[in-house]
């Protein structure tokens, strides 16, 4: 009996300390979601303006023949940028992204394309390493707080590979979109060849006739890479916010679970202690009775 | 007189927005001044340029703008900078330090493109802060 009591006490102690850790993680994640969301919102004006500028150039130049917008006639390889997190403790966050990436790879392979993965986030990298799959690019260390410099680095690698003759012919991106605190969705988008996401041009919003400095071609040359950088930056920010939200949810359910376990164990422990006491009392009573009987027999 | 609606944005945040009478920026073709009623323009800005926004009754708003674009349409002026800093926010001592370091590495290696870029940026930040360079 005593052994069981000790065992239960030990388990309660260990579950309690686990709950403390998960609770702390939960609180950290919730405070970081707010920050991540603010960064997401702060990036919106730039994105809106750059999308506007790209569509302005494209609507002004009738024949857009930029290498970044033209689909190759016979694409042979496709790059897939997979955005995962650096740390675990976030439920199915990474598993969902990787599953979606696998589905995309299968789809691309079905079209006869060779797939080259570019991976962001330590979890995605180890996932690929464990399966000894080759990666064409890997970046880690910033998944929970990406800066524009990181997006630029990634965009540079992708664009230079896209421009090479024997490089990749298409680029897709798989990341988690932050819909709300409770919902995050894995989305798959093609970023190259470029499709500018444009709101429908109603007659009132027809683009004015722009002058370009120096020329439309030059403006497009420097505009498109920035546009891609901003798309990637957006994906990184969305993914960071989603990661924190996923972590908060996972840690909240872990904490809840731990608290439930604690109450179950506490009840069992009380029962065991009560049983022990009852037994001790009955032993004492039994012993006292036996002594009393023996004394009565002597007289 | 009509006013210009000006927005200065970088990828990480909106630096400044408001109304102005005139915007002066430096594109790769040279300085460009924009007043209300200007024809639509899309220009590429130089690395390490200084943006000047003239306002009514207030002092000029000066910002160091590194790369990016200027787009003007219908009295809306957007400055999309890869990185930008208001003159009032510049850490002068840090910028001077950065300029000196960049110049030292240019002297050591004339071909050092990174250092040249860094020197340009630091100089723009100092000019935006109203320092002589």
Automatic annotation (TrEMBL), chain A:
GO cellular component, one term: proton-transporting ATP synthase complex
Recorded GO MF terms: ATP binding; proton-transporting ATP synthase activity, rotational mechanism
Matches recorded under CDD domains: F1-ATPase_gamma
Alphabetized Pfam families for the sequence: ATP-synt
Annotated keywords: ATP synthesis, Cell membrane, CF(1), Hydrogen ion transport, Ion transport, Membrane, Transport
Gene Ontology biological process terms from the UniProt entry: proton motive force-driven plasma membrane ATP synthesis
Database matches in InterPro entries: ATP_synth_F1_ATPase_gsu, ATP_synth_F1_gsu, ATP_synth_F1_gsu_CS
Membrane topology: Peripheral membrane protein
Compartments (UniProt record): Cell membrane; Membrane
Similarity section: Belongs to the ATPase gamma chain family.
Subunit organization: F-type ATPases have 2 components, CF(1) - the catalytic core - and CF(0) - the membrane proton channel. CF(1) has five subunits: alpha(3), beta(3), gamma(1), delta(1), epsilon(1). CF(0) has three main subunits: a, b and c.
Known role: Produces ATP from ADP in the presence of a proton gradient across the membrane. The gamma chain is believed to be important in regulating ATPase activity and the flow of protons through the CF(0) complex.
Listed name of the protein: ATP synthase gamma chain
Organism the protein comes from: Planotetraspora mira
Gene coding for it: atpG
TrEMBL record, chain B:
InterPro entries for this protein: ATP_synth_F1_dsu/esu, ATP_synth_F1_dsu/esu_N, ATPsynth_dsu/esu_N
Record-linked Pfam families: ATP-synt_DE_N
Main location: membrane
Domain ATP synthase F1 complex delta/epsilon subunit N-terminal: 4-84
Subcellular location per the Swiss-Prot or TrEMBL entry: Cell membrane
Key words of the record: ATP synthesis, Cell membrane, CF(1), Hydrogen ion transport, Ion transport, Membrane, Transport
Membrane topology: Peripheral membrane protein
Recorded GO MF terms: ATP binding; proton-transporting ATP synthase activity, rotational mechanism
GO cellular component: plasma membrane; proton-transporting ATP synthase complex
Gene3D superfamilies reported for this sequence: F0F1 ATP synthase delta/epsilon subunit, N-terminal
Family: Belongs to the ATPase epsilon chain family.
Summary of the function given for this chain in its UniProt record: Produces ATP from ADP in the presence of a proton gradient across the membrane.
Xref: HAMAP family: ATP_synth_epsil_bac
Complexes and interactors: F-type ATPases have 2 components, CF(1) - the catalytic core - and CF(0) - the membrane proton channel. CF(1) has five subunits: alpha(3), beta(3), gamma(1), delta(1), epsilon(1). CF(0) has three main subunits: a, b and c.
Name of the featured protein: ATP synthase epsilon chain
Species this chain originates from: Planotetraspora silvatica
Gene name of this polypeptide: atpC
């Amino acid at each position: 009996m005593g052994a069981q009591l000790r065992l239960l006490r030990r388990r309660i102690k260990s579950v309690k300390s686990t709950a403390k850790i998960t609770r702390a993680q939960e609180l950290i994640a919730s405070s970081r979601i707010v920050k991540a969301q603010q960064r997401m919102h702060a990036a919106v004006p730039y994105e809106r303006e750059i999308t506007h500028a790209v569509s302005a150039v494209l609507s002004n130049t009738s024949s857009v023949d930029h290498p970044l917008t033209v689909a190759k006639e016979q694409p042979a390889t496709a790059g897939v940028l997979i955005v995962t997190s650096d740390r675990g403790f976030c439920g199915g966050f990474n598993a969902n992204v990787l599953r979606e990436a696998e589905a995309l790879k299968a789809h691309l392979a079905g079209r006869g394309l060779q797939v080259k993965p570019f991976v962001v986030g330590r979890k995605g990298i180890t996932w690929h390493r464990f399966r000894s799959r080759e990666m064409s690019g890997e970046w880690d260390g910033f998944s929970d707080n990406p800066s524009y410099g990181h997006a630029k680095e990634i965009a540079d690698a992708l664009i230079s590979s896209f421009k090479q003759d024997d490089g990749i012919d298409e680029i897709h991106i798989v990341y988690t979109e932050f819909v709300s605190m409770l919902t995050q969705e894995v989305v798959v988008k093609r970023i190259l060849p470029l499709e500018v996401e444009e709101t429908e041009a109603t007659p009132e919003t027809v683009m004015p006739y722009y002058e370009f400095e120096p020329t439309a071609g030059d403006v497009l040359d420097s505009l498109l890479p920035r546009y891609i950088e901003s798309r990637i930056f957006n994906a990184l920010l969305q993914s960071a916010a989603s990661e924190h939200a996923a972590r908060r949810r996972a840690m909240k359910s872990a904490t809840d679970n731990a608290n439930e376990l604690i109450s179950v164990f506490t009840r069992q422990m009380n029962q065991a202690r009560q049983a022990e006491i009852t037994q001790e009392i009955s032993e004492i009573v039994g012993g006292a009775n036996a002594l009393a009987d023996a004394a009565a027999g002597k007289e | 007189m009509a006013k210009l609606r000006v927005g200065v944005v970088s990828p990480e945040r909106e630096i400044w927005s408001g109304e102005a009478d005139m915007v002066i920026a430096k594109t790769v073709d040279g300085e460009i001044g924009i007043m209300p009623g200007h024809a639509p323009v899309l220009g590429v800005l130089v690395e390490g340029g200084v943006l000047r926004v003239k306002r009514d009754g207030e002092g000029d708003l000066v910002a160091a703008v590194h790369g990016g674009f200027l787009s003007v349409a219908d009295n809306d002026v957007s400055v999309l900078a890869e990185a930008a800093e208001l003159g009032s926010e510049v850490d002068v001592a840090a910028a001077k330090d950065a300029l000196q370091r960049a110049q030292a590495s240019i002297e050591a290696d004339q071909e050092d493109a990174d250092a040249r870029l860094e020197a340009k940026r630091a100089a723009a930040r100092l000019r935006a802060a109203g320092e002589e360079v």
